[in-house]
Design brief:
Blueprint lengths: L14 E5 L4 H12 L3 E6 L2 H11 L3 E5 L5 H15 L4 E4 L14 H29 L3 E5 L3 H4 L5 H21 L5 E7 L5 H6 L3 H10 L8 H12 L10 E4 L7
Length: about 250
């Protein structure tokens, strides 16, 4: 898929932060924004993959290994980037885990750990980035949720709860940060064919289900999500805030 199918000249030179950027959708976004001429800073717990991606992209991307469950690490990372550039233009909250755990087997520790990564970290990155996003005067925040909020699948109770919380975070933050010139939107992917999904979850039965439930044929690729993230980051979407965009090939929800 051609990442340069659309060009956004206003993104050139923008300072972009992406969490969970070493693999899957995150990697596709790092590559997509770098291709637009952005200065991309991304973090991940996968140090090997993160370093390899940054090396491949050269000066356009900078990687840092980061545990987003640790507030002090988030503060240090964002402060260093803000001071270096005197602004942050785009924040993409992408990092998350999606374990399958039956409700009866889930523990309070499972719940707390997932909320720390999937939701609390988004609140913290947004909070710490806000002063620097104000300096941009065209700040854009993209929070990643999921179509599972609309589907409510089994064995994903905690995960779906975190993703629903993200939608509430987006709506409230959009109202509060709008006067500061900062837009906040939600991007909710469908079932995306990342390497992990293909390896662990996408069986022939799943492919048959996708064909039945999606309006469009074919399997969703990470690059398709990255292209929508480019649109939300660009001033092409300057009239949009507090919204949810679904990239799901038209999933049937009822």
């Amino acid at each position: 898929m051609d990442l340069n199918a659309a060009s956004y000249p206003d993104l050139k030179g923008k300072v972009v932060l992406i969490t969970g950027g070493a693999n899957g959708i995150g990697e596709s976004m790092v590559r997509a924004f770098a291709a637009q001429g952005c200065q991309v800073h991304f973090c991940d717990v996968d140090e090997e993959a993160g370093k390899a991606l940054a090396k491949d992209l050269g000066d356009s991307a900078t990687f840092r290994k980061l545990d987003l469950r640790k507030e002090v690490s988030i503060k240090g990372w964002i402060k260093a980037i803000g001071r270096k550039h005197n602004r942050i233009d785009v924040l993409i909250n992408n990092a998350a885990r999606d374990p399958r755990i039956a409700l009866g087997d889930a523990t309070s520790r499972d719940w707390d750990d997932l909320f720390a990564l999937n939701l609390l970290s988004m609140f913290l990155t947004l909070k710490e980035s806000t002063p620097w996003l104000e300096q941009s005067e065209q700040g854009s925040v993209i929070n990643f949720s999921s179509i599972t909020v609309h589907l409510g699948p089994e064995e994903m109770t905690a995960y779906v709860a975190t993703k629903a919380g993200i939608q509430g975070l987006t709506r409230s933050a959009a109202r509060e940060l709008g006067p500061k010139g900062i837009r906040v939107n939600t991007l909710s992917p469908g079932w995306i064919m990342t390497d992990r999904q293909l390896k662990e979850f996408v069986t022939p039965a799943v492919k048959r289900q996708l064909k039945k439930e999606q309006c469009l044929p074919g399997l969703l690729q990470p690059e398709q999500v990255a292209n929508v993230a480019l649109f939300l980051a660009s001033q092409t979407s300057s009239g949009m805030t507090g919204q949810e965009l679904l990239v799901d090939h038209g999933w049937r929800y009822s």
